Amino acid sequence: MEELLAYAYLIRAGFHFEEALAKRIDELFMAHPDDRDLAELEWISGDLKETLYYVFAHVNNDGIDREKFGKALMELIKPFYQSMEIHDFAKESGLLGSYLPADLYDEKPFCYLHFADEPLAWDDVKQTRKLYGEMLNYYEN
Fold it and tell me: Where are the domains of the chain?
C-alpha cells in the first residue's frame, strides 16, 4: 500500500499519475485477488476522487513502511526531475512536501522537499541540483 500512497500524494500535489495509479491497482489486484483493500480499489478505480479518498482513509500513515514509501516516491518523481525545468520542479516538489505527514517533515529524504530549492534564491542551480540528487538517490546507497 506504500506505493499506492506515494501515487496518491503525488496526484494530490499535481503530478499526473492518474493512469499509472489505475494501472498499478490493476496489476496489484491481479497479483493479490484476495486482498480486500485491493479489491475495493479495483472496483472504484474509475473514479479518481474515490480512489484517492480510499487510499488516504485506509492507509495508516503511522504504520507505513517509510523505506518502501520513500523508495516509491523517489522512483516516481525522478523522471519529473529529469524532464522539468529546475524552478518548476522546485515549486511542485515543495507542494508535495507540504502534503506529506508532519512526522516526515524533518526525516531524510523527505526534508529535501522543503529546503532543496533554497539555493535558487541566489541562483545557485548547481547546489539545488546536488540537494535534489541526494534526495532522489537516497535509497540507492
Answer: 2-59, 66-140
